[in-house]
Amino acid sequence: MAAIQYNRIIRKIVVGFGDLFNNITLVRYDSNQVEKERFLIPIAYASKERYVMRLEDDPNLDKKVQMALPRLSFEMTGLSYDSSRKQNTNVKNFASNATGAISQYNPVPYNFDFNLYLYVRNIEDATQVIEHIVPYFTPDYTVKLNLIPEMGIVKEIPVILNSTDHEIVYEGDREQATRMIIWTLRFTVKGFIFGKHTETNFITHSISSIYNLNSTNDVVSFTMNPATGNGFYGIGDVVYQGYSFGTATATAKVTQWIPSLNILRLTDIKGNFNSTSPIISVQTNASYTYTSYSPTEGKYVQVDTSPATFDLNTYTMDSTAGDITMDLDSDRYPSSIREYN
């Protein structure tokens, strides 16, 4: 059983969202507005409840293993189909690889909902971090994600800031109160989900044939109506339509007569045979009308192309190693075309 193709699109969107807030620096100042300390705010994929429980379990952050604030966390809360961005699902995208071409149908648009949580101890830290984030969203900020590397599909994904709110929680006794300030920023990421892609090989060898359909030497098969006549046609017989051979409206030569199938094959046709008059043999006087006819194709030229070089990047073929052959009289064609055996 073939392995299931996993594009990791949702994972890439989650990582791309978290990376937006991965390098936020917080600076703290003293009363004279002189920088006192500077550090990066850590971020992790976790729910709000997990960090609230950690803070409540260690309100003073004095355990041996403790959690420093401020801190950021985020989580994906859901996804929904976005019909306003629907594309034609029957359209394919193409790219080349080492052995051929890769094709991929248009993706399905989905909106991904994310919450970003900020945990701090004082309001000043919170407002500084919020001012690091909010100005970039008006209300959206666009990021580029390499969603399908094999196809070279890079999408510009809008990240929309929907709302912000905060809460201040006081816990503890009168003498030693613990304050938690938690900001929640809600986002929508307008992403896509791709299906599997398929691989096809390039055509590197082709055989093309050209057939003649207009020459008087063509063989035409007539399906005769046995109820309208009698007799047998002989190979090489001359047949005609009209009151007599001397006043015939159409003439031809018999190449084959198959009585069991009521098939009469004629060549060297002159004039137009119609289905309402019998086709009469001059030699045997056989006479039938026909119900239908079809030309028997004769091959003029066969082109057998095998590339000397093949460029996968530009899809060009150098056919100098190709072979052109024919099955008719060679003096009717250029000298570069040799006789077909």
Radius of gyration: 41 Å
Helix content estimate:
under 10%
Structural class: mainly beta
Count of the separate structural domains? 3
- The number of distinct helices, counting runs of at least 4 residues, comes to 3
Strand line-up of the largest beta sheet: 18-17-14-15-16-13-19
Largest sheet report: 7 strands, antiparallel
What does this structure look like?
The protein has helices at residues 9-19, 48-57, 123-133, and strands at 25-29, 35-40, 43-45, 71-81, 92-96, 100-105, 108-120, 140-148, 153-172, 177-193, 198-201, 206-212, 219-224, 238-241, 250-258, 263-271, 279-281, 287-288, 290-296, 298-305, 309-311, 316-318, 323-326, 338-339. The chain contains three helices and 24 strands. It has three domains: 9-200, STM4215-like (2-Layer Sandwich), CATH 3.30.2000; 204-208 and 299-339, no CATH class; 219-296. The longest helix has 11 residues, at 9-19. The two termini are 46 Å apart. Strand 21 and strand 22 (316-318) form a beta hairpin.
Task: Summarize the SSE layout with pairings.
Elements: H1 9-19, E1 25-29, E2 35-40, E3 43-45, H2 48-57, E4 71-81, E5 92-96, E6 100-105, E7 108-120, H3 123-133, E8 140-148, E9 153-172, E10 177-193, E11 198-201, E12 206-212, E13 219-224, E14 238-241, E15 250-258, E16 263-271, E17 279-281, E18 287-288, E19 290-296, E20 298-305, E21 309-311, E22 316-318, E23 323-326, E24 338-339
Parallel strand pairs: 3-4, 23-24
Antiparallel strand pairs: 1-2, 4-7, 5-6, 6-11, 7-10, 8-9, 9-10, 12-20, 13-16, 13-19, 14-15, 14-17, 15-16, 17-18, 20-23, 21-22
